[in-house]
Design goal:
By secondary structure, the protein is mainly alpha-helical. The protein contains 11 helices and 9 strands. The termini are far apart. Keywords: Membrane, Metal-binding, Transmembrane, Transmembrane helix, Zinc, Zinc-finger.
Length: 398
């Protein structure tokens, strides 16, 4: 701190003078500080009627003051004027106490190792703490930065630097692994998406083929019936117009119309035969795809879809006599019974067999054997669908 500021500081409280009073020995102190010294002397009440002795805190000389006490001491007006002017000016290079307004930090607290002001020592939280002046504290702590610098540049600095490099390396390695995993995920789901898209296209193509088969089954019959309907409408129009013809024209045309109507009525009409699509896509997706592991989807076979009539027209069967018909019925009953028993066995044991085989194949079998096994399962489901279809036809026929 500047020497000029030291002249404005009370040697008792180490704060800027407040109401400075001058003792006869020419030393100046704050009025409140002198009152505290007077009370601490213990002679205040004894010598109250007489003059009061006071020992100067600076030079230790005994001074007698009037009975009115410290108030009788003269005010150091010159010093107070200087203090007021000093406090009105800005002092950017002076550090003041954050707790006590405009009080400079001019004392060093040895207990808390920090700068404090005079109020901190007298009325603040540093009251009674050991102190030292700034110059002495500075000389004692002057060599501390070199010691601290030596501590900061020892092996600890090397260890910290090495750990930082190691952590950065580990971080980069971990981020590289995450990036690799990210690329694996993207590639895996891209390939999986491609496989699913390919399977979807194959299923849609199979359904398109089934629709073509349905068109081949129904379109010719529909077109033929439309032709018959158009011809019938034409005959209806001609028949209606005959009523307006003259007798000559009427007789000339009536026979031709009659023959055409007879020929039209004699033309055989096709029998509507509902068709059945097998296997159904919903059944394939539910029974086969749902049980397929995600890594084996590319090996799932797309079934060949077909259509068949739900019932057979009686005209396709030859006419038998009564004995042959009875024998044929018995044979049909036996066939239906056998097929029913076989179907029940397949339906009952199929799920358990496939579940067991799935567990075994996931552990022991190779991809080639697994592919053969899945092909066998597909054929098994196809056989089951065909048996169901045959059973349905036999039931309807019998």
């Amino acid at each position: 701190m500047h020497n000029f500021e030291d002249e404005l500081t009370c040697p008792i409280c180490y704060s800027i003078f407040e109401d400075p009073r001058v003792l006869p020995c020419s030393h100046t102190f704050c009025r409140s500080c002198l009152e505290n010294v007077l009370q601490a002397s213990g002679n205040f009440y004894i010598w109250r009627p007489l003059r009061i002795p006071l020992k100067c805190p600076n030079c230790r000389s005994v001074i007698e003051i009037a009975p009115t006490g410290i108030e009788s001491l003269p005010v150091n007006f010159a010093l107070r004027a200087i203090i007021e002017k000093y406090q009105q000016e800005d002092h950017p290079d002076i550090v003041t106490c954050p707790e006590h307004y405009s009080q400079p930090l001019n004392v060093y607290c040895l207990l808390d190792k920090k700068l404090v002001c005079g109020h901190c020592l007298t009325i603040g939280q540093h009251h009674g703490h050991p102190i030292d002046d700034l110059q002495s504290a500075y000389l004692k702590e002057k060599d501390t930065p070199q010691k601290l610098l030596a501590q900061l540049t020892d092996a600890h600095w090397t260890d910290v630097t090495h750990l930082i490099d190691k952590l950065e390396h580990e971080k980069a390695h971990s981020e590289e692994m995450v990036q690799c995993d990210k690329e694996v995920v993207l590639l895996y789901f891209k390939e999986l998406g491609d496989v699913l898209e390919q399977k979807k296209e194959h299923l849609l193509a199979a359904l398109c083929d089934v629709r073509n088969l349905i068109n081949q089954e129904y379109t010719p019959q529909i077109e033929r019936l439309k032709e018959i309907r158009e011809e019938q409408l034409e005959l209806m129009t001609e028949t209606t117009s005959l009523q307006e013809e003259s007798p000559l024209k009427f007789l000339e045309k009536i026979d031709d119309v009659r023959q055409r109507v007879q020929m039209l009525k004699q033309r055989p009409l096709p029998e509507v035969q509902p068709v059945e699509i097998y296997p159904r896509v919903s059944q394939v997706l539910k029974e086969e795809w749902c049980r397929t592991e995600i890594g084996q989807i590319n090996k799932v076979l797309i079934p060949e879809m077909k259509i068949s009539s739900k019932r057979m027209p009686p005209s396709c069967w030859p006419v038998k006599d009564e004995k042959e018909i009875e024998l044929f019925k018995i044979l049909n009953f036996v066939i239906v019974t056998l097929i029913s028993v076989l179907l029940m066995l397949i339906l009952f044991f199929n799920q358990h067999i496939i579940t067991f085989l799935n567990e075994i194949t996931s552990i022991c079998l190779s991809d080639i054997v697994l592919s053969v096994y899945q092909s066998f399962c597909n054929n098994l489901y196809d056989l089951k669908d065909k048996l169901c279809h045959i059973l349905h036809l036999l039931k309807e026929f019998t």
